[in-house]
Design goal:
The protein is of the alpha+beta class. It has ten helices and ten strands.
Length: about 325
């Protein structure tokens, strides 16, 4: 068996994939529709929209399989994302790369695979739209073009995911993107008994900055703030701009006290930046932090409401 090679742009590719906040999210009709069409069009038992993560391939849409992911080192899609064209294996038992692959010798007993790589607008190959059969077969040119057409639609849907979940100005998740991922993360925290804390932030005197210095300066404040937020976050943390001058970070595997240390460090960093650049305004902010308690907070909304309330208390005491 041959393990898939690693793409040369792997770090950038994974960064793009994770920026979509799509991994481990619920099924969506727009992707399921494509796999249903592929299954009917090519008369195959299995059709997938597969996204290749660091050590797994995860299925955003999956017809014909009972699992949602498989290891990357045995994946067919890991090979497919290395090229630009449809990756076609007419008969796995006649291909030395796959003849002893566990996905061939055991369930789902793959004999035929065709996967069209899904290219994101920045050029990253994120995964595939693929079809699988348990008997050998081939595709003619017309079939290949049809598979490419379906894959092109999947690419547009992935691009739409980013547009719908990323804040255009700051390039961090917006409210929708945050809610999708944060709720799932809380479920993982409950299941694995991991602590979490949510910090809700509101920039001080932001309207005054806009009114006095103009919206271009206001936009610069927001992008600068978002950038420095990202610097205090680890890969497991989730940050977002909820709207206007309101931001949020869900700290995973972090207590309230540690989250507060991060907030104080961010405040100090912005203060020093303002002094260094001799800004005519402060980039200060108020914040409220709530430690996640499954007995008190049934959803991410509960955490946001609690932290928002604490933020306003903090704002009043620092006037």
């Amino acid at each position: 068996m041959k393990t898939p090679d690693t793409p040369q742009d792997e770090d950038a590719r994974l960064k793009t994939l994770r920026s979509l906040n799509i991994l481990d999210t619920s099924a969506e009709e727009r992707f399921d529709r494509l796999t249903r069409i592929a299954k009917r069009m090519f008369d195959v038992p299995i059709a997938l929209v597969s996204l290749v993560d660091e050590d797994r391939q995860w299925f955003k849409s999956c017809i014909g399989l009972s699992v949602r992911e498989t290891p990357r080192d045995i994946s067919f899609c890991g090979h497919a994302i290395l090229g630009n064209e449809v990756f076609l294996i007419p008969d796995t038992l006649k291909d030395e790369r796959f003849i002893d692959n566990p996905l061939v010798t055991d369930e789902p007993n793959i004999r035929f695979y065709a996967g069209c790589p899904l290219r994101f607008p920045d050029g990253s190959m994120l995964g595939t739209l693929c079809i699988i059969d348990q008997k050998p077969r081939n595709l003619d040119e017309e079939d290949l073009e049809a598979l490419k057409d379906l894959a092109s639609t999947a690419e547009r849907e992935l691009a739409a995911v980013q547009m719908a979940t990323i804040d255009e100005l700051t390039n961090i998740p917006n409210r929708r993107g945050f809610m999708m991922v944060a709720q799932h993360s809380l479920k993982l925290c409950i299941r694995q008994r991991i602590p979490a804390a949510l910090a809700y932030m509101d920039l001080n005197s932001f309207k005054l900055i806009n009114d006095t210095h103009g919206h271009a300066v206001g936009d610069n404040v927001l992008t600068t703030y978002a950038s420095h937020m990202g610097q205090i976050c680890r890969e497991s943390d989730i940050l977002a701009r909820l709207g206007g001058d309101e931001f949020v970070i869900l700290f995973i595997n972090t207590t309230k006290d540690v989250a507060e240390e991060h907030m104080l460090r961010l405040q100090q960093t912005l203060l020093e930046l303002g002094q260094k650049e001799k800004r005519e305004y402060d980039m200060s902010f108020s914040f409220g932090i709530t430690e996640f308690d499954p007995n008190e907070h049934s959803s991410i909304d509960d955490l946001i409401v609690a932290s928002d309330s604490r933020m306003y208390e903090h704002k009043e005491t620092t006037k």
